Amino acid sequence: MNFLRNFLASILGSLFAFGILFVMFLIFVSLVSSSEDSVAIKDNSILELQLKRPISDYTGNDELDPFAGIFQESQGLDEIIQAIDVAKNDDRIKGISINNNFIMAGLAQTQAIRKSLEDFKEEGKFIYAYADFFMQRDYYLASVADSIFINPVGVLDFKGLSTEVLYFKELQEKSGIKMEVIRHGKYKSAVEPYLENNMSEANRSQLTSLLQSLWNSMVVDISKTRSISESDLNVIADTLGGRTPKYAKQSGLIDDVVFYDEYESKLANALKIKKDDDINYSTLDDYVKYSNKKTLKSGDDKIAVIFAQGEIFYGEGGPNIIGQGIINEALIKARDDKKVKAIVLRVNSPGGSALTSDIIWREVALAKKVKPVIVSMGNVAASGGYYIAAGADKIFAEPTTITGSIGVFGTVPNMTELADNIGINAEQVGTNKNAVEYSLFEPMQESFKNQIQESIEETYQTFLQRVSEGRNMTMAQVDSVAQGRVWSGTEALEVGLVDELGNLDDAIEAAAELASLNSYGVKKFPKYKSGFERFMEDLEGASLQIKENVLKDEIGDEAYKVLKELQSFKEQKGIQARMPFALDIK
User: Fold this and answer.
1) Nearest-CA neighbor of 578 among 335, 417, 405, 326?
2) In sequence order, which residues have a C-beta less than 8 Å from that of residue 154 and are 6 or more positions away?
3) Residue tagged active-site, from 88, 94, 178, 188
4) Domains contained in the chain, CATH given
5) Labelling 519: which of 90, 192, 342, 463 has CA 20 to 30 A away?
6) Where do the catalytic residues lie (predicted)?
């Protein structure tokens, strides 16, 4: 009896505690909402551009959702650019301070922000930049500023681009766990890390060409705004001519070496106030709340912008995963909406499932029959990412976009050697000749390998056909630029894989032109659940995230990177149309 009474009391106590927490949370949300409504921008202000969180193309937040932004781990590129565009015509904002960033964004995203800042300067407003540390990508963004300053004991990284590819052949041999790789015959760079211990000359050549093209694009932009010749910039990189603040100033990479309080004095001077007067700063987060409520483009007619970002997996998809569920639903809504006159598909993906890519490609093709479809490529639109873009009326890429990688492969884990080493023997029983298809613990049968090879070849030919039809190229022409080769946006333009170099706004303007629109609004798809909703729906997922962070701290970044690559291969199902390996460009 005492047990029952104590049990009921525990339940009531828990319910009461949850009730108190829920009420407190509602009060918290109310306070957050009221604070958002009261965001005030003072006259003679500076917009402080601090990019503190990872940048995704799109967060999918609903501005009317009181939970929007709660547990939000990323910043939306669309919101950042919107804020800069609104500030450009806001008389209260006199300039921008780019302050101490460790920008967590791809090169194309960084380039897009930089272009928006260039437009801001055209209104006669100033941009200053300051940092204790300028990492290479940070400096690329900061180089748009009128004046750049660094801490007297700071560091500036300017040495050229590089990347690292991990090879796992020896690890497989030592562990007894190997990846059985099946690929299109000439598609050699894909899955090379699972077949070799060293980089092939062909792969090294294509990566060198890619990195050189990306670097050239950065150098051209920096040369223009810093008035340093491209050849001199390369000399500075080769000699590490910016390795100390003193050398960075002598080489022209920065304008002065100052402490932060001295930097603020320069900002005060730019605002034409006394150096002892308080500077009115508006943080980016606060200004985004204000700018999100502003409409830069309006009209009864709409252009739908559909964001497809992340790896491609079969299924529903979400903020960081492209699935046929959420993307096709958005395409169908945009296609059937009478007010939507054109569609822009923003692709930021290294690829993934070939099946899912083809399902989305089909929906793009159906939409294209009804209204213009334009593709805007982000940091990467490669392999499956290019697959879903290939059928559009027009494709835009940033000069620093990574694209191409037209090819398919399959990987199947095999533990035969490990099983032998630890004394496991697997026996199979089946009713028909091919009933036992594949076992992790037995060598791959030639019949099974031939079956997968047939599917690989068929999928590759289908991929070539999709690109051939979309780009008005012969199959042979596509094949010559395919074979898994990756290209920069600039290179892709030269070989016919994209139509123009430009950002998302350029793609939207092209869509408006194809639809013969003079005035129009922009409608964004899809709308994701807020970070808080996802957190409440998946507390286990939140727990796993915490565990991953702890693991990363314990084993270090490099070991964690290896683990994540192995996990990624484990999760791949079916034939893959994806980037041959993860490229972390530094």
Assistant:
1) 405
2) 131, 132, 133, 134, 245, 257
3) 188
4) 45-159+240-293 (3.90.226.10), 302-410+455-534+545-578 (3.90.226.10)
5) 90
6) 188 (proton donor/acceptor), 383 (nucleophile)
- What is the per-residue pLDDT for 227? 97
CA distance 253 to 257: 11
Straight-line distance from the first to the last Cα atom of the chain, in angstroms, rounded to the nearest whole number:
67
Q: Packing angle between helix 354-368 and helix 446-471, nearest 10 degrees? A: 20
| Helix (H/G/I), strand (E/B), else coil: 108 | helix
**DSSP labels for 375-444?**
EEEEEEEETHHHHHHTTSSEEEE-TT-EEE----EEEEEE-HHHHHHHT-------SSTTTS---TTSPP
Residue 543 designated active-site:
no
Tokens 């074979």, residue?
A: 483
Q: Which amino acid is at 369?
A: K
Strand partners, 397: 377, 501
Residue 383 a catalytic site member: yes
Burial of 32 (0-12, 13-18, 19+ CB in 10 A): middle
Q: Residues near 421 by Cβ (< 8 Å), separated by ≥ 6?
A: 176
Q: What are the residue ranges in the chain where pLDDT is below 70?
A: 1-39, 61-72, 185-188, 529-574, 579-583
* Cα dihedral 56, 61, 66, 67 sign: negative
- Which phi-psi region, left, alpha or beta, contains residue 404 (left: φ > 0; alpha: ψ -120 to 50)? left
Q: What pLDDT score was predicted for residue 307?
A: 98
Q: Compute the distance between CA of residue 293 and CA of residue 43 in angstroms, rounded to an integer.
A: 19
Distances (CA, A) of 380 to 207, 239, 521: 14, 30, 27
Ramachandran class of 53: left when φ > 0, alpha when ψ lies in -120 to 50, beta otherwise: beta
Phi first, then psi, for residue 150 (nearest 5°) are -135, 150
pLDDT of residue 566: 53
| Active-site annotation holder among 282, 349, 383, 488 | 383
**Tell me, what DSSP letter sits at residue 280?**
E
3-class secondary structure, 338: coil
Calculate ∠ Cα 455-461-467, nearest 5°.
135
- Report the C-alpha gap between 415 and 391 in whole angstroms: 40
Looking from the CA of 329 toward its CB, the CA atoms found within 13 Å total 12
State residue 292's pLDDT score: 92
Phi and psi torsions of 477, nearest 5°: -65, -40
Question: What gap in Å lies between CA 377 and CA 384, rounded to an integer?
Answer: 13
| Residue 87 burial (10 A CB sphere; 0-12, 13-18, 19+) | buried
312 has which bridge partners? Answer: 322, 352
**Residues 381 and 458: beta-carbon distance below 8 Å:** no
